[in-house]
């Protein structure tokens, strides 16, 4: 029996919050966006959005920037942990929302929520294991395995893996922790710093894109070899450059060199490495999917 | 209620097979090892071992070299797929054993079996997510998440990820598919080829070991960031060099540079990156754990 309850969602990003109320992608009844300022002001604005709706949702799903504590058994479940975002370290996001709204609240990383949204309603509906990677201001990844977002200690930080440098690339890297990790070499700000041009202004035939495809393809190869996802969904601002997709797919095949003998890689890579089926709403719809997983019965 | 049934196990390696009968690590009633020759001869030898026991096991768990098909819903479940091992491509290992023994048979990769053995009875008993990496003739990894071995398309091949080269290392790499992937740079044969000396003959202060620690530490960092395992268990012949453990742990901390703010990495890394609790029996005991998962009731 389909779940017809009304659910709320918050995509809590470091730059902006997106709040929505609905039952799924075809039935979003209200949606709002506002900039992320202080925790107090921003969470109050989210709370006000839900309070002014005709009815409160049955539950709320929050996908948050991090690092976060996504472990329901932990005493800091639903907190943002030590984060570079000023003022937000150790914010009890879930606690504040629960106190104000009095409804059950699911909580995970923004990228796990997006991976779940894509698994439930987007580009990963037909498979069991979905990896979602966002490439934008930062790089981050979420993984859903048989419908369950992956946690650990406390959760993946896929944007910071290390891959071999592109030939001739002498850029030092922009990550304050690691220098030339993936995020340091391939995020939007890294592109801009290396080429002294905003990513969106680089023409399609600029060598920047072959280099970007190099880093993203090696990252995907490592993800494929490490956790064997059945679909790779690439979102975020940098991936709006749709010409990157064929470049990345070709590189992935070249690097793997026939080693992973699966039709998804060998013959159907156009359907394996894909943009989000939900577009830029993967995260906020994923929040609704998170809330639905609470099994309120 | 503890499961007191008698189970069988086969660790089907590319070099040797290990067969055992028992209920767990404290109760192995019979065990044998023999070289891997042709599929027909080798599987017949395994079948003969179980038939000559006083009673047949309730079920059999097989952890096999690969690549394999570990998906019970697939038509080639339990087959070894296209493998460099001569004569073994497309061998229906599970089918042959089932036909001869007539008992339920669980089937997975050798490294998933080892990860499961460590999760059940070894170094990963107290956590939910265990990654097992073997570093020997080849490099391979298995991952158990909440007691379930991870599959995908068809399963991880962690030994073939790519990491940055060590400074000054001009060795081309030994992997026939990828050249300088992890296995190409850090397997036992790669060590021997680079230094023209068998790994076990290299003294502890030889620069080979700092370089080996570089490659393995970068690999572990990538695994930590990608799938967030709560314990990393390193087995296989090369890891018999126990002096590698402190070198790898230190490098992992240096590379992560405080980014993963978890006590396991920051303060308790000696208990985070560890040798197998079951020693060289992780694989064969993992087969018993695999068989137990069949839930025969």
CATH fold descriptor of the largest domain in chain A: Nucleotidyltransferase, domain 5
Q: Quick one: which chains have the greatest interface?
A: A-B, 47 and 47 residues
Q: What general form of chain A does the structure show?
A: globular
Number of domains of chain A: 2
* Separate helix tally of chain A: 9
CATH architecture of the largest domain in chain A: 2-Layer Sandwich
- Spatial separation of the terminal alpha carbons of chain A: 13 Å
Supply database-style keywords.
homodimer; 297 residues; alpha/beta; Nucleotidyltransferase, domain 5; 5-stranded mixed β-sheet; 9 helices; 32% helix; globular
Write the layout of secondary structure elements.
Two copies of one chain form a homodimer.
Chain A: E1 7-12, E2 16-24, E3 27-35, H1 39-51, E4 59-64, E5 79-80, E6 91-92, H2 93-101, E7 105-109, H3 110-121, E8 129-135, E9 139-145, E10 148-149, H4 182-186, H5 188-195, H6 207-227, E11 231-235, H7 244-256, H8 263-266, E12 273-274, H9 282-292
Parallel strand pairs in A: 1-4, 4-7, 8-11, 11-12
Antiparallel strand pairs in A: 1-2, 2-3, 5-6, 8-9, 9-10
Helix pairs in contact in A: 1-2, 3-9, 6-7
Task: Describe this entry's structure for a reader.
2 copies of one chain form a homodimer. Chain A has 297 residues and is an alpha/beta fold. Chain A folds into 2 domains: 7-109 and 280-293, 2-Layer Sandwich (Nucleotidyltransferase, domain 5); 123-275, Nucleotidyltransferase, domain 5, CATH 3.30.420.40. In chain A, 32% of the residues lie in helices and 21% in strands. The longest helix of chain A is centred in the last third of the chain and has 21 residues, at 207-227. Chain A starts with 6 loop residues before the first strand and ends in a 5-residue tail after the last helix. The model of chain A has no long low-confidence stretch (mean pLDDT 96). Chains A and B meet through strand 9 and helix 6 of A and strand 9 and helix 6 of B.
